């Protein structure tokens, strides 16, 4: 079997994963704008499902532990995008898995700092989905529960830990960098990845 047959063609797709609050959406938006790529957000997709069902994102996560169809709907959308699209930036917990020929990025952030960022964030989407708690401590507890729920669900479904950084081509700590700077770091690494044989 030739090298080309063993390794699928690299797709011009950047998949971005990481903890809530790590800057996935903002960074993905900046990258898409800089590269003139399209955007897809699993978070927005899930918020849409939660809104249709009249529940918060956290409640939807608990429901998804018992109802596999919730995650499967999002995952099928990602699988189809991976087959049909190019020149795309996706922020999603599992896009790296469904699109293995993408450039896979993980944004790292301490959970306490993530909770503080989300608590202070002026996001209409987050507020509408019930993601922002009354206090920073409640925000931290909510995030910890959400991460535990996601790890449990994705391991049960696919035997994957979405927060295991060994799955990724690039890991960036976003504690101190602005999303625009992180976007430049990602783009530079992505261009080198595309050029590499």
Task: Tag the structure with descriptive keywords.
single chain; 197 residues; Rossmann fold; 5-stranded parallel β-sheet; disordered N terminus
In short:
By secondary structure, the chain is of the alpha/beta class. The chain has 10 helices and 5 strands.
How does the SSE layout of this entry go?
Blueprint (H helix, E strand, L loop, with lengths): L2 H4 L6 E6 L5 H12 L2 E4 H12 L3 H8 L3 H17 L3 E4 L3 H4 L4 E6 L2 H10 L3 H5 L7 H23 L11 E4 L5 H17 L2
Parallel strand pairs: 1-3, 1-4, 2-3, 4-5
Helix pairs in contact: 2-10, 4-9, 7-9
Summarize the structure in words.
There is one protein chain. The chain is α/β, with parallel strands linked by helices. It has a single domain (10-188), classed as 3-Layer(aba) Sandwich (Rossmann fold). It contains ten helices and five strands; from the N terminus they run αβαβαααβαβαααβα. It has helices at residues 3-6, 24-35, 42-53, 57-64, 68-84, 95-98, 111-120, 124-128, 136-158, 179-195, and strands at residues 13-18, 38-41, 88-91, 103-108, 170-173. It has a five-stranded parallel beta sheet with strand order 2-3-1-4-5. The radius of gyration is 17 Å and the shape is globular. The two termini are 17 Å apart. The model is unreliable at 1-5 (pLDDT under 50).
């Amino acid at each position: 079997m030739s090298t080309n047959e063993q390794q699928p063609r690299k797709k011009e797709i950047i998949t971005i994963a990481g903890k809530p609050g790590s800057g996935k959406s903002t960074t993905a938006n900046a990258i898409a704008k800089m590269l003139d790529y399209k955007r897809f957000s699993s978070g927005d997709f899930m918020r849409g499902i939660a809104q249709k069902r009249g529940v918060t994102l956290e409640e939807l996560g608990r429901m998804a532990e018992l109802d596999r169809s919730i995650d499967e709907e999002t995952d099928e959308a990602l699988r189809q995008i991976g087959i049909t699209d190019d020149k795309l930036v996706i922020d999603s917990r599992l896009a790296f898995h469904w699109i293995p020929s993408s450039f896979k990025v993980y944004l790292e952030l301490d959970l306490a700092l993530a909770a503080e960022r989300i608590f202070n964030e002026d996001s209409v989407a987050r507020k509408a989905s019930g993601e922002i708690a009354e206090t920073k401590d409640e925000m931290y507890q909510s995030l910890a529960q959400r991460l535990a729920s996601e790890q449990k669900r994705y391991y049960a479904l696919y035997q994957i830990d979405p927060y295991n950084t060994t799955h990724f081509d690039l890991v960036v700590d976003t504690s101190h960098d602005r999303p625009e700077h992180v976007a430049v770091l990602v783009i530079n690494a992505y261009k080198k990845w595309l050029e590499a044989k």
